[in-house]
Design goal:
heterodimer, A: 174 residues, mainly alpha, Rna Polymerase Sigma Factor, Chain: A, Arc Repressor Mutant, subunit A, 11 helices, 72% helix, globular, B: 250 residues, alpha+beta, seven-stranded antiparallel β-sheet, 22% strand
Chain lengths: 174, 250
C-alpha cells in the first residue's frame, strides 16, 4: 500500500469522528465519510502535494455535508448524501481554492492570545470537557466557552477568509 | 425562533449539549444553511486540532471505508509523482495523449467504428478511419453535454440504438476550454468518452470501449480517460455553480 494509503487509513478514525459530530448519527456519519472519500478520489487533482491531507479531506466532507442540507432545504425532503454529491449543488469551492490547505492550523493557533490558546489546548487537544477545562484553568465555564468560541472562529477565518465572510462570520476583534 | 449562539453551536460540535438541547439545535441546522456552515466550522476546527493530540482512536472502521481510503491513497500517489516528474505538462505531453487516444482507437477497431457512427450526426460520414478531430457528437448528445451536471444520467436515442449517458466529470483546461468525461452504455458495450468544447462545438477526443469479450474494463476506461484529460492539461475539476456556468449553451 502507498504511504498515502497508510496515512488515509490512519486518518479514518478522525474522519469518522468529524462526520459524527456533523451528522449526529453514526450510520449517516459513515455514509458521509464514504462519500467524502469518493469525492476526494474524483477531485484528486485539486490536492496539492506537500499540503495537509487531513485538512483537504475535512474540507471536502464539510462542504458535502453543507450541500446536503442545502439540497434538503430546496427539495423539502430527505436528500441522501449521494444525491447531494451528484446533483448540481455540490460546488467547486474545494477544488478551486487551495489556499486553505496552505494555512496550518497549528501556526494559526500560535497567533492567538494566550488565554484563548490555553482553552483550545485544554478542550481540543487535551480533550478536557468544558467543566474540566474551567477547573483546570480556574476560570468560569462561561468564560471558557466564550474564549473557545472566539478562538475557533478566528481559526476558521484564518483557514478560509472568503468562506467565513460568505457565511456571515462577524469576527470580533481578538 | 430562539437565536442560537456561537457558544451553543460550538457546544454541539464538542458534544457538550444535553440530548434535548442537541436535538433542538440539530433541527435548526437542518433548516438553516448559514447556521449549518457556522456549526461545521466549529466541528472542523475541532477535527483539525484533534490530530495534535496524537491519540489513536482504535475503533472498528468499516471495511468499505478502508478500501476507499486505500484507493484514494493510490490515486494521490499518482498525483504526487506526476507533479514531481513534471511541474506543468508541456505541449509534447499533449501530443502523447493524442497518440494514446489514436492507439486506443486502433486497438478497439470495429467496435469503435460503431461507437463513432452512433456518435455522429446522420450525415452519412463513414466512421472508420475518421480523424480524431473530426468526430462530432449527435445533436442529442450535444444537448446533454451542456445540460447534465456531473453524476447525472439520461437516456438518448442515437439512430436505432438507445444509449444511457452518464456524465462523470467536467474539467477546465489550462487553455480555458472545457472537457468532459462521460460514460455511455450502448448496444452491450460500456464506453468511456472524453469530449472537449472548443469554438462552441463539442468534439469527442477519446473513446474507450469495453465489451463483454475482453479488451478494456470500465475501470481501466475511467483510468485511461483520467490520464488522458490530465495529459491534455486539466487545470481544475468543475462542479456545482462553476460547472453550470461553464456549460452555458452558446
Amino acid at each position: 500500500m502507498s504511504d498515502f494509503g497508510n496515512e488515509l487509513v490512519a486518518l479514518l478514525p478522525r474522519l469518522r469522528r468529524f462526520a459524527r459530530s456533523l451528522t449526529g448519527q453514526p450510520d449517516d456519519a459513515d455514509d458521509l465519510v464514504q462519500a467524502a472519500l469518493e469525492r476526494a478520489l474524483r477531485s484528486r487533482s485539486s490536492w496539492e502535494p506537500g499540503t495537509r491531507l487531513d485538512a483537504w479531506i475535512f474540507r471536502i466532507m464539510r462542504n458535502l455535508w453543507i450541500d446536503q442540507i442545502r439540497h434538503r432545504k430546496v427539495r423539502g425532503d430527505r436528500t441522501t448524501i449521494e444525491a447531494a454529491e451528484q446533483l448540481s449543488g455540490f460546488d467547486g469551492r474545494v477544488v478551486t481554492d487551495n489556499r486553505i490547505m496552505l494555512a496550518d492550523v497549528q501556526e494559526l493557533l500560535a497567533t492567538l492570545p494566550g488565554d484563548q490558546r490555553a482553552v483550545v489546548q485544554s478542550v481540543c487537544i487535551d480533550e478536557l470537557s468544558y467543566r474540566e477545562a474551567a477547573e483546570h484553568l480556574k476560570t468560569p465555564i462561561g468564560t471558557v466557552m466564550s474564549r473557545l468560541a472566539r478562538a475557533r472562529l478566528a481559526l476558521a477565518a484564518g483557514l478560509d477568509l472568503d468562506e467565513a465572510a460568505e457565511a456571515g462570520f462577524n469576527l470580533k476583534k481578538l | 425562533m430562539t437565536a442560537i449562539t456561537d457558544e451553543t453551536l460550538m457546544a454541539l460540535a464538542d458534544g457538550e449539549l444535553e440530548p434535548a438541547e442537541a436535538a433542538r439545535v440539530r433541527e435548526a441546522l437542518r433548516r438553516d444553511v448559514d447556521l449549518a456552515a457556522r456549526f461545521a466550522s466549529f466541528a472542523e476546527s475541532r477535527a483539525l486540532l484533534s490530530g495534535a493530540s496524537g491519540r489513536a482512536a482504535n475503533d472498528d472502521v468499516p471495511e468499505r471505508l478502508v478500501n476507499t481510503a486505500r484507493r484514494l491513497g493510490d490515486a494521490l500517489s499518482g498525483v504526487a509523482s506526476r507533479q514531481q516528474s513534471s511541474h506543468s505538462l508541456r505541449q509534447s505531453d499533449r501530443f502523447k495523449a493524442m497518440a494514446l487516444a489514436a492507439s486506443i482507437a486502433l486497438c478497439v477497431g470495429g467496435v469503435l467504428g460503431f461507437a463513432f457512427r452512433s456518435l455522429q450526426s446522420s450525415d452519412g460520414t463513414p466512421a472508420n478511419g475518421v480523424a480524431l478531430n473530426d468526430i462530432a457528437v449527435s445533436p442529442a448528445e450535444k444537448d446533454l453535454l451542456f445540460q447534465l451536471a456531473s453524476g447525472e444520467s439520461r437516456q438518448v436515442q442515437s439512430g436505432t440504438a438507445t444509449a444511457d449517458i452518464t456524465m462523470v466529470s467536467t474539467h477546465r483546461m489550462e487553455d480555458g476550454s472545457i472537457c468532459r468525461e462521460f460514460s455511455a452504455a450502448i448496444a452491450g458495450t460500456q464506453q468511456t468518452r472524453v469530449a472537449c468544447l472548443r469554438e462552441r462545438a463539442w468534439r469527442v477526443h477519446l473513446v474507450v470501449v469495453s465489451s463483454s469479450d475482453g479488451g478494456f474494463s470500465p475501470a481501466s476506461g475511467h483510468a485511461t480517460a483520467d490520464e488522458f484529460i490530465e495529459a491534455l492539461g486539466s487545470k481544475e475539476i468543475l462542479t456545482g455553480d462553476a460547472e453550470r456556468k461553464a456549460l452555458v449553451q452558446p
